[in-house]
Specification:
Layout: H1 3-17, H2 24-31, H3 35-47, E1 52-55, E2 61-64, H4 77-88, H5 96-108, H6 112-122, H7 139-145, E3 150-155, E4 161-174, E5 177-184, E6 189-194, E7 198-203, H8 215-218
Antiparallel strand pairs: 1-2, 3-4, 3-7, 4-5, 5-6
Helix pairs in contact: 1-5, 2-3, 4-5, 4-6
InterPro entries: CBASS_pafABC_assoc_protein (IPR051534), HTH_11 (IPR013196), WH-like_DNA-bd_sf (IPR036388), WH_DNA-bd_sf (IPR036390), WYL_dom (IPR026881)
Domain Helix-turn-helix type: 6-62
Protein name: YafY family protein
């Protein structure tokens, strides 16, 4: 997590807890950094004008005036439930960490009564997953958004491994498997790489040339591609 995301996360963690305090140690454990780093972050937030103050004592910590941060999101109860279910469906995806923090943020910016109702209903919804369902590395998400050439150590279906430099073009999910669609320099063409077969993912500093991905390049013989933002 970079510092900007951590600063935002600290604000939302304090807002969700308000008016109860959060200790620097608990925040440090939450964001997996040192207490000193958290204290520097809190000082920076205070200097930026956010109403954060320290409460002394054994049960003290840092408190924020919740009304001074993000306002309530204008979700209806059904919309909030849909968002929480959608984020929960990403539990084994490469976006699972971001989905968990996003779910907390959704509830944190809602009025308390609506957030409690949405959380209670969401707790009744479950996903039936088989033991050993494939888990895609979270670095898959970095490879997708990086706009850089990515070096993959990839295991084929027969177990053989190869090293490939690829230029990410997009991603497809099917039956719980996440595929990175990319221009493969080894094969000089578009290929789809299954996330759970990626032994390692290294994002390089090289920017790839601009390429246009066409549906016909994928060679899909059945099914219909639906973009995330589509109906």
């Amino acid at each position: 997590m970079n510092r900007t995301d951590r600063l935002y996360g600290i604000v939302e963690e304090l807002r969700a807890a308000a008016p109860r305090p959060r200790s620097a140690r608990r925040l440090a454990e939450r964001f997996e950094v040192s207490v000193r780093t958290v204290e520097r972050d809190l000082a920076a937030l205070q200097q930026s004008g956010l109403p954060i103050w320290a409460e002394p004592g054994r049960t003290g910590g840092y408190v924020i005036d919740a009304s001074a941060t993000l306002g309530p999101a204008g979700f209806t109860p059904d919309e909030a439930l849909a968002v929480l279910i959608g984020l929960g469906a990403l539990g084994t995806s490469p976006f699972r960490q971001a989905a968990r923090t996003a779910a907390r943020k959704v509830l944190a910016v809602m009025p308390d009564r609506d957030a409690a109702r949405a959380g209670a209903v969401a707790s009744r919804v479950h996903f039936l997953e088989a033991d050993g369902d494939p888990v895609t590395p979270v670095t898959f998400a970095e490879a997708l958004r990086s706009d850089r050439v990515v070096r993959l150590r990839y295991r084929a279906a027969d177990g053989s491994e190869s090293s490939r430099d690829v230029e990410p073009l997009g991603s497809i999910e099917k039956d719980g498997h996440w595929y990175l669609v990319a221009w493969c320099r080894l094969r000089d063409g578009v290929r789809a790489f299954r996330g759970d077969r990626m032994a390692s993912i290294e994002v390089t500093d090289e920017r790839p040339p601009r390429r246009v991905l066409r549906t016909e390049d994928l060679g899909i013989e059945y099914g219909r591609l639906r973009p995330v933002g589509g109906d």
